[in-house]
Amino acid sequence: MQTLPDWMAAVKFDQQGLVPVIAQDELTGRILMVAWANREALLETARSGHAVYFSRSRQRLWRKGESSGHTQIVKEIRLDCDGDVVLLIVSQIGDIACHTGRQSCFYRQLKQIDGTMQWQSVDPVLKDPDDIYK
Amino acid sequence: MQTLPDWMAAVKFDQQGLVPVIAQDELTGRILMVAWANREALLETARSGHAVYFSRSRQRLWRKGESSGHTQIVKEIRLDCDGDVVLLIVSQIGDIACHTGRQSCFYRQLKQIDGTMQWQSVDPVLKDPDDIYK
Asked: In which pathway does it act (chains A, B) (predicted)?
């Protein structure tokens, strides 16, 4: 691990050493996804200009797009008032952030259908995941 | 606690019974804030059409705007692909979501200043917090 820069001190990582990171599309303003970063991931994001997360399931750095090719070029890094959420404004390569082949992971909307509230998929699949991760 | 509706089962609450909730402005697309909800808060949000969170510091329901008047009218409720983050598209009353008197809590941007990376406040204070919480 490299020496941490001063700006990192303003970021409040949780007890697992992680902070939630929101990726927002710079063009459409859509929220693409939410993932997690540890200090190393956030440092690499800032230095490389590409979004790097920490995969909790795989317990390792996750360079977004490493298998899909759908990298995220970071345009802005922002921090919220209490320092515990990071926002990345990104250019989403391929226009697909979600592993389901959709632009955004937030493709389900709560709607009244036949008298009951249900989650409805409201965004199209732009590319078959089998074609993304082959 | 009331009986939980079926749609709630798709939401993955953490071990503390909480899920992170992003509030996004319906007009500007700006991310206003990130807070937490428990089942009760999310249920009240869906039923009332106003954003209700769970305050971790005060350990109670937080009806956004209860002291500031800056309520959030919920236009859409969305859920991400793995069900562990909720997105509210809202109309922000007063155009101020942050307790600092700014539109958004994400007012700090990482910038190169005099050769070093620093967090810079890039958004204006729209109203003095002393005037909001008097």
From this structure: Amino-acid biosynthesis; L-histidine biosynthesis; L-histidine from 5-phospho-alpha-D-ribose 1-diphosphate: step 3/9
CA of residue A23 relative to chain centroid, distance: 4
Does 3.10.20.810 match the CATH number of domain B6-132?
yes
Give residue limits of the domains in chain A.
6-132
Residue of B81, B100, B119 with shortest CB distance to A7: B119
Q: What is the pLDDT of residues A78-94, one digit of tens each?
A: 999 999 999 999 999 99
The mean pLDDT value for A95-114 works out to 96
Contact map slice: A 45-64 vs B, CB within 8 A: 46
A118 touches chain B (CB under 8 A): yes
Tell me if A6 and B116 make a contact (CB, 8 A cut-off): yes
Give this complex's ipTM. 0.95
